[in-house]
Amino acid sequence: MLKVGVLGAGHLGKIHLRLLNESEKYSLVGFYDPDVINGKKVEAEFGYTYFDNINKLMDAVDVLDIVTPTLSHFDCAKKAIEKGKHIFIEKPITNTLAEAEELIELKNKHNVKGQVGHVERFNPAFSAVKNSIVTPMFIETHRLAEFNPRGTDVPVVLDLMIHDIDAILSVVNSEVKSINASGVSVISKSPDIANARIEFKNGCVANLTASRISLKNMRKSRFFQQDAYISVDFLEKKVEVVKMKDAPEQAGDFDMVLQNAEGEKKQIYFENPEVAGNNAILDELETFADAINNNTTPIVTLEQGTNALRVALQIIESF
Predict the structure, then answer these.
(1) Bridge partners of 224?
(2) Is residue 304 within 8 Å of 38, Cβ to Cβ?
(3) Which CATH number do you get for residue 70?
(4) What superkingdom heads the lineage (predicted)?
(5) Closest Cα to residue 121, out of 311, 272, 280, 298?
(6) Which end of the chain is more exposed for a tag (fewer CB within 10 A), N or C?
């Protein structure tokens, strides 16, 4: 079992602590939090070992799980990598592109593995249809959340939209051609609502909307490609797959057939892929353990996390 330590014992940090403690692939050594009062409180309440010195924790583990505020990601990750530790780091990978690129260089230099916590890659609804999303040409995403002060230290693009940016980049096999976006600050000092239009060199267009001041939560993405429409509800963990094929010469009474202006007939049919239940956070942590133990590539690499950050920052710059 890999010895793991957690940096940060906030809301998400406590979730990571619980899951790592339950995992059969890790041995939880303990955690560090700069807030001693909070650290002692978490130790007393849950029984996890609290380290009041970050270096002592790093020296005692094989893997560091970094669940600290974004501004501290780089310093924590750099220190861990230089000690030869593998790092799991929450999204966004860092606060700046230069920091992310330096982490990649350090990771390669010290021959350690790194993974970024883009948890929606492990959402069972997305996993159920990802292999069916082959050549999307139009994508529309909506990620709406009720207001929560936690996370408002960064623009909504880095807080919420970056989940959809990463998912889109994982299925669109093309470079970004252009980005147009707008963002509005309503409650926070940084934008709370944002819309972005991303055009890729292969002709695909993605329209993304994110808000953290909505009256209801929504996390939906729709993918349109030749002869197929795929809808993913990340929140409800449901999928809808509608496909078309050449219609038979003799259509059945219940067959749904469309005819275009050229007279071509297409039959519409539905697929119902199974959506398996899972804990996405546990899955991302345990697949990282597998990558370390088997010396394979993590599912969400530091390079991919950097690409998502790059696009997110380009969106912010275009406001």
Answers:
(1) 138, 229
(2) no
(3) 3.40.50.720
(4) Bacteria
(5) 280
(6) N
pTM of the model: 0.92
How far is Cα 77 from Cα 87, in angstroms, rounded to an integer?
A: 7
Neighbours of 295 (CB within 10 A): 7
Same domain, 256 and 290: no
Q: How many domains are there within the chain?
A: 2
Which among 214, 230, 273, 268 has a CA at the least distance from the CA of 141? 230
> Is there a single domain that holds both residue 221 and residue 294?
no
Distance (Å) of CA 173 to CA 133, 134, 195, 199, 206 = 11, 9, 22, 12, 13
pLDDT tens sequence across 133-173: 999 999 999 999 998 876 666 789 999 999 999 999 999 99
Question: Cβ distance 204 to 138 under 8 Å?
Answer: yes
3 state DSSP class of 27: strand
Same domain for 176 and 94: no
Q: Tell me if 306 is assigned to some domain.
A: no
Residue with tokens 């993974």: 115
User: Is cis: bond before 92, omega within 30 of 0?
Assistant: yes
Considering the domain architecture, whether residues 56 and 189 belong to the same structural domain is answered as no
Exposure class string for 225-247: b at 16+ Cβ within 10 A, else e:
beebebbbbbbebebbbebbeeb
User: Is the pLDDT at 262 greater than 90, yes or no?
Assistant: no
Domain boundaries, position 42: 2-120+281-300
Cα dihedral across residues 202, 138, 313, 128: positive or negative = negative
- Distance CA(210)–CA(231), nearest Å, equals 17
- Helices 97-110, 73-82: inter-axial angle, 10-degree rounding: 10
305: in domain: no
Q: 259: alpha, beta or left, given left = phi > 0 and alpha = psi -120 to 50? A: beta
Q: What percent of the chain has pLDDT over 90?
A: 85
Q: Token pair for residue 130?
A: 């990802």
Task: Kindly state whether residues 62 and 114 are assigned to the same domain.
Answer: yes
What burial class does residue 13 get, using C-beta atoms within 10 Å of its C-beta: 0-12 exposed, 13-18 middle, 19+ buried? buried
